[in-house]
Amino acid sequence: MNYSLNPDALGDLRDAASFYSEQAGNSLSQSFLGEFEQSINKLLRHPALGSPWRGRGRRRYTMRHFPYSLVYTISGDEIRILAVAHHSRRPGYWAART
Prior knowledge:
There is one protein chain. This protein is of the alpha+beta class. The protein has a single domain (about 1-85), classed as YaeB-like fold (2-Layer Sandwich). About 40% of the residues lie in helices and about 30% in strands. It has two helices and five strands, in the order βααββββ. The protein has helices at about 5-25, 25-45; strands at about 1-5, 50, 60, 70-75, 80-85. A five-stranded mixed beta sheet has the order 1-5-4-3-2. Strand 2 and strand 3 (about 60) form a beta hairpin. Helix 1 packs antiparallel against helix 2. The longest helix is centred in the middle third of the chain and has 20 residues, at about 25-45. The chain is globular, with a radius of gyration of 13 Å.
């Protein structure tokens, strides 16, 4: 199993890491990125771990220590990350992403 990031999801990830770095320093930013990697590794081992969300084959996996969810689809042997969605951001802002 492999994964890929939608370019906008990569932007979400970078924005979040930058925010944590600016607000609390590099160590919190690194903790966020580390939890993102752990979440991806869990999904690669257990792709159906996230719950079905908003139809069209989308699933959502909630990160444990940060207010973010990974919104993704599963296609064959690939997990496609559509968004690294902050829980306070406008719901479904990522809905047009593929």
